[in-house]
Specification:
By secondary structure, the protein is mostly helical. The chain contains ten helices and no strands. The chain is globular, with a radius of gyration of 24 Å.
Length: about 280
């Protein structure tokens, strides 16, 4: 049966409203950064902050343009490769251990005390040990980033599994689901939102650990660019590297958020808007 012109027009209007709503939301997200940039530009130009400590945002933008025509691409690719490799290794191991501990009280008794202690070690404390064990090549950097990504994914993964409603598992057992079918049809979908929370937290930590990793005798990468700007007393280079890290972190998190939205589209959750007519 062919759709009526009215229904087609209504569907087109609804799609247009959704697109305009998304662009409006993105525009709102740019308001605060724009205000901060304008305020900093004004404060530095007036002279309330010395330019050698806080360069004007326009000067940082010029530095970024100069770097973009120079070695910025090399530094971004080096950092991106390290983060992706470290995150892939750390997140994969974390998901395996989270499934083991989440599904077994005995595994939790053996592993959780050790993991809790390791989780409290600061990132820079691993640097001298990794230098002694693995040297100054790429392996030590990737391992440090993997350590940073491991624990958020592991903690959130265990919590996601343990927070599954017992009634869902009982329904699966009532229908005589085997272990594989129970995992794929009930446990994994129920734990998926919590797992994505852990993955996004782990990715954020991977970017944070990147800076510490690139202090391990790196000759390229955004962490090296930060260190180079500090040693040459160039705060514009430091801020340009920080801005590049922020943009890359936001893009990678946005991609993971879009994947999450697709994988858990079945959820009917509170969106943050109060129902109309609510007092």
């Amino acid at each position: 049966m062919a759709a009526s012109p009215q229904s087609l027009a209504s569907g087109t209007a609804t799609a247009g409203q959704r697109r305009s709503g998304r662009w409006l939301a993105r525009g709102k997200g740019l308001v605060l950064p724009a205000l901060i940039i304008l305020l900093l530009e004004l404060v530095v130009r007036i002279g309330w902050l010395p330019a050698y400590q806080m360069p004007a945002p326009s000067d940082v933008a010029l530095t970024l343009l100069d770097l973009a025509h120079g070695a910025l691409g090399k530094h971004v690719l080096a950092s991106l490769g390290r983060v992706l490799a470290g995150f892939a290794i750390g997140a994969s191991l974390a998901l395996l251990f989270a499934a083991w501990v989440g599904l077994s009280r005995e595994a939790e008794a053996y592993l959780e005390p050790t993991f809790a202690g390791l989780r409290a070690i600061p990132s820079l404390a691993w640097v001298p040990l990794l230098l002694l064990w693995l040297g100054i090549d790429e392996t030590s950097k990737v391992v440090l980033i993997a350590i940073g990504a491991f624990f958020p994914v592991y903690v959130n993964g265990v919590a996601a599994i343990r927070n599954i409603d017992r009634k869902l598992v009982e329904v699966g057992q009532m229908y005589h689901f085997g272990a594989r079918r129970l995992t794929l049809r009930i446990l994994l979908p129920a734990a998926l939102p919590g797992l994505f929370t852990g993955l996004r937290s782990g990715l954020s930590m991977a970017w944070m650990f990147l800076v510490a990793a690139e202090l391990i005798a790196a000759t390229k990468g955004l962490g090296y660019l930060l260190s180079d700007g500090r040693e040459t007393s160039r705060p514009d280079i430091v801020l340009a590297a920080i801005l590049a890290l922020a943009v890359l972190g936001k893009i990678s998190d946005g991609l993971l958020a879009r994947l999450e939205k697709r994988c858990v589209a079945w959820r009917d959750t509170f969106s943050g808007d109060h129902p109309r007519g609510a007092q």
